[in-house]
Amino acid sequence: MRFPLFLFRKFLRYLVLVFAIITVNFLIPRLMPGDPMIFIFGEEVYGAAIRNPELFEALTAKYGLNLPLVDQFWIYLMSLFRADFGYSFSYGRQISEIIAERLPLTLIMTVPSTVLSLVAGTAIGLTLGWESDRLPKRLVSAACVAVHSFPTYWLAMLMLLFFSLWLGWAPIGGAPPAGASFVAIVQHLSLPLLVLAIFNTAYVSIIVRGLTIEISEEPFVIAALSKGLGKLNFSLRHLLKPSLPPLLSLFAIEMGFAFSGALLVEIAFSWPGMGYTMWQAVIERDYPLLQASFTMVALVVVSANALADALSYALDPRSRS
Amino acid sequence: MKRFGYSPTGVEWAGIALILAVFAMTLMSFLPGGCFGMPSSIPYLPPSSSNFLGTNDIGDDVLAILLQGSRVSLSIGLLGATVSTLFGTVIGVFAGFMGGTVDEALGSITDFFLVVPALPLMILLAAYLGPSFMNVVMVIGLLWWPTTARMVRARARQIRGSPFIEGLMGVGARKPYIMFRHVLPNVWGIVLARFVLAVSSSILLEAGLSFIGLGDPQNPSWGMMLHFAMTRGALLHGAWWTFVPPGICISFSSLGFILIGMGMESRYRSSTKSIGDVS
Q1: N or C end: fewer C-beta atoms under 10 angstroms in chain B?
Q2: pTM flag (> 0.95)
Q3: Is the CB of B118 less than 8 angstroms away from the CB of A21?
Q4: Domain range for residue A67?
Q5: What is the ipTM of this complex?
Q6: CA-based nearest distance B144→chain A, Å
Q7: Residue A11 falls inside a structural domain
């Protein structure tokens, strides 16, 4: 009976969180200095509307801007439920269309690199954490910390310089054209994926190494070792297993960070995902698009957190009591 | 519990970055051609004896911009870290000491900022506020406190339960007094470590925001140099000297602060652990 109640409470928390994100998103343009209509319509539409009273009236009525805040909020919520984020003047299209096109392009980069780095980082972290005082291992750990403090987009620029400009192995950026061959898609994806995988692997390695060191001091580890367990068997059963739940929850917190890194890498590679969209929205001062992009990115990160919670619940019997 | 320990390399890297920033103007006057480097209207000159790091897209000396940028990057790093640590400490001490509803309310606000991706929210806020030096500082400071708050809260909670606080309460000491004079000094170790780590994050965050184009265009930072290299075609031009040096500066100054912070944190952790074992 505990199972559904526990998860229910967890997910209720996430629902509140999503509501809070939406509320903040609603309030920001209305509380910022300046006419909120600039932020809600976007600069260009606002300029056109000022000159055309009829359009101005229609837009004001659509967003309910002459109504009290509470009613405005209700209208805002309803339009979100209809997946209506408004209109992007810089693209001349509905924002929901743009996002439906571009969110998958971000996920196709972040999900594989995250999975890859979880596996690789866990293996590396376990190795590094076990007998961590040896010199080669300490050097590798230091390298992981170093890589983690490199700006991802700078790493991306270096890769572009080296592999695309100097060696000519990969395209200079952008997404593969529609109907491109499999090879072309792999070529376009390889460098961004590589950058993200390196960066996230370094991070996961650092975390797993710390957890391993902590766990290897526990008495049950000494007991297991004195029984004469093999190294691999020992690592998997006694080091990996207890470190999984904290690893998952830590990773959930850092998921936002990983996603942020991906957003910046996209810009460097001109990869038309959410990060690139946000960048263009910033340059064009396209506030509606920027806000919608933020909402979607936040929703993805919150869902990833919820997923990590559910997973750690399924994996860790301790969390159920 | 030997994790990274005291790390002299961290101190060195952070020190070099700070010296660069403090003496940037003096160093710049030693450049061939004076304060702003050798005046040269030729864009994308590779490194030479007159322009040690070449020139950028408008023919400015890259080394001169790099030195100027060190001031912007590091002062935003330090100021952003100051604001965020201040917030985190106040919220953490308050939540940990007061407990109850206050703790719960502050805890859920902290959770909100922990889960919501910070950089996209920073981009959103900075885009509304407009690019300026103080806005970048405020955006970083206002959004980068949750981890600090959480750690300080845990420590404050621990201290709250110790007998000497109970004694103070029994004597009738007022709560603000206890918080300021007795709880705060005891969380100082973790606050300092968090501050140094926050400097490192702020340098990286500032670089990220500037890379997106939300930095102050009047005071180009290292991140801004990367932004210009990206948007004005230095990358496609293969002019590596315009973006490799600022990247190295960002990486190693933030790495320096990270290493110092990690060392402080692990030392602090082992010291509190032994105290905890005794009591």
Answers
A1: C
A2: no
A3: no
A4: 34-78
A5: 0.84
A6: 12
A7: no
